[in-house]
Amino acid sequence: MSATPAEVDAALTYLEADVYEFRSGYERARVARRLAGMDMSAEQQARARRYVLDVVDGRKHCEQRAVGQLAHAVADNPTRAALRARLHADDVHIARRAVRTLSRVRRPALSEADAAVARALVLADAELTPWLPPNVDRLARWLWTADWENELRALTSHHGTQRASAKKIVESIDRRRAAKRPDP
Residue 62: helix, strand or coil by DSSP? Predict the structure, then answer.
């Protein structure tokens, strides 16, 4: 979508102001999604990357899917590295936002340590509700490997603190697999 540089600057200024009033969260998400589809200069992309990192750090506010779309549009290698570093943050909220944002970015280049931390976060998030939330299900599918499947299946066979979470994730994957199989 083409927009004038002034329109892109106005959208970035609005997001950076982090206005907090009635329905402003919806408006920020709408602006971030539209901004993701606009042509931006190098300076504007740098501002958008700073905004994405500010949201992940909790200094600014935006709906997670919208900031993920913006991150997808503007992420560069230093931004990916910064997001991967935030996976290891002591604050679980920052780590959670980082994994959700990284899942939207092209070629996040997760190391084994990064993937292990992300999987632990997904397992912990699956524990928070009696059902598997859709965003946690999506992250589990994004991080899915045969090794993690074996680990989760092992967790479901023994009583422990992570058994219920692992069972929810495995059951979700099994349902998806069964839905893809044709009837005999």
Answer: coil
